[in-house]
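Work Package 3 (structural annotation) set out to generate three-dimensional models for the target panel prioritized at the project kickoff. During this period the team completed the workflow that converts sequence records into discrete structure tokens, so that structures can be stored uniformly alongside our sequence database. As a representative example, we reproduce one entry of 318 residues exactly as it appears in the project archive.
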Amino acid sequence: MNNENTQSKPSPLPQKGEEGRDSVSIEIDSSSGFCFGVTTAIKKAEEELAKGTTLYCLGDIVHNAMECERLRHMGLVTISHEDMARLHNAKVLLRAHGEPPETYQLAQRNNIEIIDATCPVVLQLQRRIKRQYEAQKEQTAEGSSIIIFGKPGHAEVLGLVGQTQGHATVIANQEDAKHLDFSRDIYLYSQTTKSLDEFQRIITYIRQHIAPGRTFQSFDTICRQVANRMPNVSAFAQRHQLVLFVCGRKSSNGHVLFNECQRVNPNSHLIESASEINMQWLSGVTSIGICGATSTPKWLMEECRDAILRHTESSRKE
């Protein structure tokens, strides 16, 4: 299957206005769906699987159970770091989130061929943090701190912390920033998929509390393709009476975007697949919006649309 089919598959059912069959208007958000990094990772996986060789993926290739299941049927085997430590003479795909240096060292020891699908934005961030850490070591800057604004334990964050041999400090929000040592120089970076507004609030707080004479530098490392989805999804949710937000429940980015949908439109529901749609939600509704996270395949949103169209067509005939 090519990458285009990964994100979208045709629906045989018409939308409103086609042959006049439907009384409900359904719009799929054109800005939702896989980001560039996820698209590239899945394309690489499909290309390798097409060769007929066994391909392992270190962790879920994307935080979406339906897409992971689709690729599993194609032959992709998801493994943990513990599994990889026992693996030899194999081929392993690294997903878009990236990995710490230890993963590459393990691969070399165990004769594992790496298919590196690390997102270019994440890879650039890893290199920046590594350069900062090495510069501090050369300057014996004991009074410096590398701070990463991100979700503790998230795969991308683990890869970023790994560039500092575990010495970086991770903060999840402004509340965590209150516990930083402001008597040290602070160099602040962000996980690529975090909220730009929260990042700015943290910057302001640190500037207000950094000790006199100490250096504070912040680096805006948030992916704009992801950050721009917040205002887009907000505007989209306001246009509809009912919003179905389709994403895996493990998606950090998905929960941030869904919370924004609910903020502007309380009649928003998070679902993983069409089977979770409660058709009673459609009662009295004439405008439905379907959107999703950077880990949501377009075909999954289309399946949700088709399920609603089948239901409305069936109800019309009764």
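DSSP finds 13 helices and twelve strands in the chain.
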